[in-house]
Amino acid sequence: MLKVKIPTYDRLMNPVIQALQILGGSGTIDEIDNKATEVIGLSDEQLEVLHDEKGGQTEVAYRLAWARTYLKKFGILENSARGVWALTPQGTRAETIDEKEVVQFVREKLKNGRQTVDEEKIGESGIEQSWRDELLQTLLKMDATAFERLIKRMLRESGFIQVEVTGRSGDRGIDGKGIMRLSGLLSFHVIFQCKRYRDSVTPNLVRDFRGAMVGRADKGLFITTGTFTKEAIREATRDGAPAIDLIDGEQLMDKLKELGLGVQTEKVQVEEVTIDEGWFLSI
User: Fold this and answer.
1) pLDDT at 282
2) pLDDT in tens, 84-98
3) Which of 72, 156, 275, 282 has its CA at a distance of 20 to 30 angstroms from the CA of residue 84?
4) Which domain holds residue 172?
């Protein structure tokens, strides 16, 4: 049982709509989640609660995913294959919705249709946790050297060149470096740090990493299997300081899936049979 009180998924529906309105009608999952939590005013303590002991996803992110799913079924939201969610014309017209009406509508739809709630979980963005849980546990079982090699491979597959793992004691958390080429014209020297964490990365780790990168690279990249606290995210983009890009466990797993690194995706076609009662009656 959760000790920290967190809004239920239905209570998060209107904040999701408000977040998309503020974002101009569309946004990525991260953008929507961050803006929705700002709208509600959730504390760091609430944002850092993990969904389960396996880690990898926070309870707030899990409930926001359910909120998006219900709003999609109700016709308020739509999402693309690229993971961008947007307000539908109906959603654009709706300033707020009745959460109870949405829940009742969706549950009746599932009850009357061929899908069960368990089947509905499969395939909805942010909800299918089975492969994520398995992948996260696999990553956590890797030794530090193997995990660094994986990150090195991922960066190369993402367009980095001259990637090296340089982690050594006394290097203040720097695990490697590389060069990111953009369109074959521009290049940025990047240093990275990768941590196999179940818990959240705190701002002091981000500060230490920045201190190590100053004067040595154009950009910093901090990768973790866990999450980042709200303060750590603020520290990474603090005004007047070199910006550090953050990749949390969810983003890391999505990237491995996208690149096909140890994650194979197979599209399964499902045959749907519809009976045309009118045809039989008119024959």
Assistant:
1) 74
2) 899 999 999 988 999
3) 156
4) 143-259
Question: Is 23 among the domain residues?
Answer: yes
- Residues 117 and 168 placed together within one structural domain of the fold: no
CATH of the domain at 76: 1.10.10
pLDDT for residue 121: 45
pLDDT of residue 274: 79
Q: What angle do CA 113, 118, 119 make, to 5 degrees?
A: 55
Q: What is the pLDDT of residue 119?
A: 44
- 156 and 113 inside one domain: no
266: in domain: no
> In this structure, are 113 and 193 located in the same domain?
no
In this structure, are 68 and 173 located in the same domain? no
- Cα–Cα distance between 249 and 147 in angstroms, integer? 13
Closest CA to 6 of 34, 41, 35: 41
pLDDT (mean) for 55-68: 88
* CATH classification at residue 253: 3.40.1350.10
